[in-house]
Write a structure and sequence with these properties.
Blueprint: E1 7-11, H1 15-25, E2 30-34, H2 37-46, E3 51-54, H3 63-71, E4 81-85, H4 90-98, E5 103-106, H5 111-158, H6 167-181, H7 186-195, H8 208-211, H9 219-225, H10 228-236, H11 242-253, H12 274-288, H13 300-309, H14 317-325, H15 327-336
Parallel strand pairs: 1-2, 1-3, 3-4, 4-5
């Protein structure tokens, strides 16, 4: 059974001073000790205590510097530090509090005051940790709720011309895998995974008679269909969140072509944002391998062959080459989220 007592690190270069504090606190706490600042920093790095009692006047690295270093690191900054020192001037106490200590005790110490101050600051520390945990939990819940709404928006658009809405799930996973293969940062890949489902949100504004037409679209109908990227960008608006900004960019640019013959802006090559180039590949792959009112489903082999033919014209050639290397993963995703 592990000891649930809080751990206190006592730091002082005089062993007798350590013995006094250990005698006061040992009945209620686990105690670690260090005779110098360097050792104290190593102990904190290896196994952070719940509270530190720290002398100021020590050789090599004094207590003020130890506290500065602890407060400069995110992992150790929250640990409460109480200075226990012979320096009793008001300026000394102000200097100790200025580097981040929560309290300041002067020697010789009073046992009752030490016990009371330690108990108080441990309670405050535990309360702060609990509140931080609650905030993290609530933030995670809100983030999950927001992502669920985002996915619902994407699937709402897809239900307009697909029976299950699983297209947006498959293509978002294809896009995320391709972004990873391209060496893009982890955070970017995660945002892309959640933004990609909204790529066709603009189809909500396209009449069903055009969207679900089984025959080829005529010129006027095609002009209407080609408005959905701009409609999507307008629907998503100009929100400041990273997720919605990327979603808006994807909605606007996923029908641009590498050769500049795409729409709505006729962007060419790397002028097309990378998220738009990635989603263009993922979207077309899934569209071709899925059955639609106007076409049957292509095989994976035929689709990849077609995309290889279009490298450098419709698609970013380097991204197509990477996508081809992902074929085993792509097949797994297609199987996992297949239309029923």
């Amino acid at each position: 059974m592990t000891d649930s007592k809080p751990t206190i690190l006592v730091v002082d270069d005089i062993p007798e001073n350590i013995d006094v504090l250990v005698g006061i606190l040992k009945p209620d706490y686990q105690i670690k000790v260090a005779l110098d600042g360097v050792t104290a920093l190593k102990i904190v790095e290896q196994s952070p205590p719940d509270l530190i009692l720290l002398d100021i006047m020590m050789p090599e690295v004094d207590g003020l510097e130890v506290c500065r270093r602890l407060k400069a690191q995110p992992m150790t900054s929250p640990i409460p530090v109480i200075f226990v020192t012979a320096l009793g001037e008001v300026a000394d106490e102000a200097a100790g509090l200025a580097v981040g200590a929560v309290d300041y005790l002067t020697k010789p110490v009073n046992a009752a005051i030490v016990q009371a101050r330690v108990k108080t600051h441990l309670a405050l520390y535990n309360q702060a940790q609990h509140l931080e945990s609650l905030v993290r939990s609530r933030t995670h819940e809100l983030e999950q709720a927001r992502l669920h709404v985002v996915q619902c928006l994407g699937r709402a658009a897809e239900y307009k011309d697909n029976e299950t809405g699983l297209h947006v799930i498959r293509m978002s996973h294809y896009a995320e895998r391709l972004a990873r293969a391209a060496g893009l940062p982890e955070h970017f890949c995660q945002v892309l995974l959640h933004a990609a489902p909204m790529h066709d949100i603009g189809k909500i504004g396209i009449p069903d008679r055009i969207l679900k037409k089984e025959a080829r679209l005529d010129a006027k109908e095609w002009d209407v269909m080609r408005t959905h990227p701009e409609l999507g960008a307008k629907i998503l608006g100009d929100l400041e969140t990273e997720l919605m900004q990327m979603a808006s960019t994807i909605a606007l640019t996923h029908h641009e072509r590498w050769d500049g013959e795409g729409y709505p802006q006729g962007l060419k090559g790397t002028d097309i944002p990378v998220e738009g180039r990635i989603v263009a590949i993922a979207d077309v792959f899934d569209a071709l391998t899925s059955r639609r009112p106007y076409k049957g489903a292509w095989t994976v082999d035929d689709t990849l062959a077609e995309m290889q033919r279009e490298r450098g014209t419709q698609f970013d050639p380097e991204l197509v080459d990477l996508f081809l290397t992902l074929e085993p993963e792509i097949r797994v995703i297609a199987e996992r989220y297949q239309d029923k």
